[in-house]
TrEMBL record:
Top-level taxon of origin: Bacteria
Binding site for substrate: 156-159, 211, 256-260, 264, 328
Single biological process term from Gene Ontology: UDP-glucuronate biosynthetic process
Active site (UniProt): 267
Pathway the protein contributes to: Nucleotide-sugar biosynthesis; UDP-alpha-D-glucuronate biosynthesis; UDP-alpha-D-glucuronate from UDP-alpha-D-glucose: step 1/1
A molecular function GO annotation: UDP-glucose 6-dehydrogenase activity
Residue positions binding NAD(+): 30, 35, 86, 121, 159, 270, 335
UniProt xrefs under InterPro entries: 6-PGluconate_DH-like_C_sf, NAD(P)-bd_dom_sf, UDP-Glc/GDP-Man, UDP-Glc/GDP-Man_DH_C, UDP-Glc/GDP-Man_DH_C_sf, UDP-Glc/GDP-Man_DH_dimer, UDP-Glc/GDP-Man_DH_N, UDPglc_DH_bac
Domain UDP-glucose/GDP-mannose dehydrogenase C-terminal, chain residue ranges per copy: 321-425
Lineage: Bacteria, Pseudomonadati, Pseudomonadota, Gammaproteobacteria, Oceanospirillales
Catalyzed reactions: UDP-alpha-D-glucose + 2 NAD(+) + H2O = UDP-alpha-D-glucuronate + 2 NADH + 3 H(+)
Organism from which the protein derives: Billgrantia endophytica
Name this polypeptide is given: UDP-glucose 6-dehydrogenase
Amino acid sequence: MNITVFGTGYVGLVQGAILADVGHHVVCVDLDADKIERLKQGIIPIYEPGLEPLVKENHAAGRLDFTTDAAAGVQHGQVQFIAVGTPPDENGSADLQYVLSVAATIAEHMERDQVIVDKSTVPVGTADTVRAKVAEVLERRGRRELGFDVVSNPEFLKEGSAVADCQKPDRIIIGTESEETEEVMRELYAPFNRNHEKIIVMDVRSAELTKYAANCMLATKISFMNEMANLAERLGADIEAVRQGIGSDPRIGYHFIYPGVGYGGSCFPKDVQALIRTASDIDFDAKMLKAVEARNAEQKTTLFQKIHTHYQGDLAGKTFAVWGLAFKPNTDDMREAPSRVLMEALWEAGAKVQAYDPEAMEEAQRLYGNRDELSLCGTKEAALKGATALVIVTEWQSFRAPDFDLINERLSEPTIFDGRNLYEPKRMAHKGFTYYSIGRNS
Ligand code: UGA
């Protein structure tokens, strides 16, 4: 099939490449000419395992192309994906200006019936708004005879495993009331619908809400565990034992119950906020979601609080080694990252930071490059040199078995503040470290 994807961010680019890889002919459209040029040369704007070869191979095979020419893009596809950003506006609602501008562009250039797919995470009711926008432009063009449908087809990929998630989806949600559209979408996704039925067809609004409900449920699990970790710390219990104890119940499960320094990234914080906002727009008080958000905001300050208490507020002039800047491993993304809350609080208190991350150094440079209080180090060992203590914010694999003797030697005090519970408290005590973790008594 011929497919057009508007937006070459995480969702659009991965989706475009995956669809091309199973044999569809995909054109990705973006306004950013520089980005499009680089993509044509196989230069990927984000760090995402497996994406670069996929883009290069499919581009070389002529199945995946990139353009800034929206008109040509619309002409190409029989299905048009909208996969542009929906950043939060100042009151927490998802800002739909990019989605609606793509909808208008599609309507401006379409010359045949079209299936328009909302792939971006958009509030319930957006498909109706997109439908109205397309109808309005067609009306203005005097082309009311052109038929179209707007489908909600949310994406569930995770950064860091986006390619694998997209290649082997748990489920494919298709929100449409039209049998014809359902058929088109079934054909499009047939290569991914193997082994067992993964396609779930529902009405548009339910599909839109499914996306938010999934992310909010996962965010709730995390905030719940962080609350339990705080309790465990104060009650003399060990959250790691508790985690295993409850995870063994299949109704609870082991996924997404790791306590830590709070969830970050471009999805959970934004989506929880947006659903709270959607609820308040219809005069519904989303009490649970507000609690999830509040717990998360507080959790992001937990490492700083532990550091502050340990040094009795005397942080001015001290230097801290920080391992991990990305909001989670296997990405260079620092959006809403707990590392930012930590570093900004340390700077505010007069401390300096020597930081290392396996992938997010460029991003850190872009965000904070000019600050004297931050040194970006080439290795995790270099970050330790002359630092008072080590603070671990992201659970990169390469941090799991470090050379503890070297850490001990390089830090002026052998103290570790671990926001991801990477090590065993008893073992750390045995090695002579003062070790702080999350929800464990060390
Ligand atoms: C999330 C969802 O997991 C995807 O299913 C969804 O498609 C995506 O948002 C989206 O809406 O686009 P992502 O934000 O890439 O994916 O990252 P996650 O792996 O879900 O992690 C989110 C945050 O939760 C991270 O900061 C992570 O450290 C934290 N987390 C995760 C915990 O603190 N504890 C856990 O047990 C799991």
